[in-house]
Amino acid sequence: MEVSGRRDGKGDFSSSFSHSSDDADQLYCLPCKHDETRVPAYGYCKDCAEHLCETCYKNHRKPAPCRNHILLDKTKMPKTLSPGTTSLDLTETCDQHHGKAIKYFCKDHESLGCSPCMTMNHRSCKIDYIPDVSKNYIASSQYQSLLKSLETLHDNLKAIAKSITEKKKLIQENQDRIKADIQKFRQKINATLDK
Which tens digit of pLDDT belongs to each residue from 114-137? Predict the structure, then answer.
């Protein structure tokens, strides 16, 4: 029997043939699976299309992006993995219109919104449909510039980490040398006092 939050020691789910046939029918928490733990499913999130353990189920609605998600308990959750569980839908929902996806950007007001928001509040504004605009973003020079900046930042962080490691090593060597000098000096003092 597995306990929520405990590791089974395997860490790899590809070796499912080593588990019993009863275990093959068992559904596991997908967020915990990403942390390499096997925790039996307690519920299901319809919006994320993920099975959740008891801990994840109880805490799922706490983060702002998940507050309006629809959760199903153990009795109502799907008993099989759906084919679409591997892809994540990162679409945010509108705060004002429950369940409506944010798909538009108003350039005039620099605000995001769903279809009803844009229809009611931004009729005369210049509006972009986010999925169309985002397709071309990866090929843009702005995106390429961002990638180069991130690579430079990553390289700088590596250099800083290496420098910190070297300085820690140097500090430790100095500390060891000074400690040895103090011990030698103390031995000399003890020897002098003994005489």
Answer: 888 888 888 888 888 887 777 777
